[in-house]
Amino acid sequence: MNLRPRLAWTRNRRPSERKTSALETRGGGSPDLNSSLLQVNSAAKGSSFDSAYEEHFTFVWRCLRSLGVPRAQLDDAAQEVFLVVHRRLDTFEGSSSLRGWLFGIVRHVAFNQRRTMKRKASRCEPLDGNLRSSAPGPHESAEGSEAAAFLEHFLAGLDEKKREVFALAVIEELSIPEVAEALGIPLNTAYTRLRRAREDFRRALEERRHQP
């Protein structure tokens, strides 16, 4: 249904007349108009969600990885994040950046994934020592893969507060004000955590360089 003629007509009427027209029918308005408006709102939400998904899926995926979600669980975790986004997107008021808002959801999902992983690990029996490791050998890894493995190991060794700041500021290149807003912490606290995380990173690099 084309809503333009009807909506243009209501714009030309006085406010009191618009209110009366909205309540003319027993159901609280024209069923056709109400149905069409619902379709428009639904389409707008769908468009916003599609845009958020296309623009920020990689950001969400990397953040989940940086926060310790195993590779095997990343797709499921990302899907869970965007299910929450789809339900709650209409509550996003724009007072903060969308990436900051998304990261709040990512943190929650990552925490739940890690907690589930720990529970499963506690119930697993020790692996047979004769099983062959699936980890690649020194000649099977490219330099980029080695760097990624180093970064992953470094992030896993950080405490959660420094890891979150490092992931957002260094890996995702958010500004420190954006990081502070996303984490809900004072600006000076964000700077302090980032400085300490970078010091840890430099030490880890030095140790790596001196390894035989």
User: Which regions contain 5 or more consecutive residues with pLDDT less than 50?
Assistant: 1-27, 36-44, 124-142
Report the portion of residues in β strands. under 5%
Let me know the average pLDDT: 75
Shape: globular
Structural Rg: 25 Å
- Roughly what percent helix? over 70%
Which structural category do the helix and sheet elements fall into? mainly alpha
The CATH architecture term of the largest domain is Orthogonal Bundle
CATH class of the largest domain: Mainly Alpha
Topology:
Layout: H1 4-11, H2 15-22, H3 31-66, H4 71-88, H5 98-123, H6 143-157, H7 160-171, H8 176-183, H9 187-209
Helix pairs in contact: 3-4, 3-5, 4-5, 5-8, 7-8, 7-9, 8-9
What does this structure look like?
- This protein is mainly α and 212 residues long.
- The chain contains nine helices and no strands.
- Helix 7 (160-171) packs across helix 9 (187-209).
- The longest helix is centred in the first third of the chain and has 36 residues, at 31-66.
- The termini are far apart.
- Mean pLDDT is 75; it is low at 1-27, 36-44 and 124-142.
Key structural traits:
single chain; 212 residues; mainly alpha; Rna Polymerase Sigma Factor, Chain: A; Arc Repressor Mutant, subunit A; 9 helices; 0% strand; globular; disordered N terminus
Tell me briefly what this model is.
With 212 residues, this protein is mainly alpha-helical. It has nine helices and no strands. Helix 3 (31-66) packs across helix 5 and helix 8 packs across helix 9 (187-209).
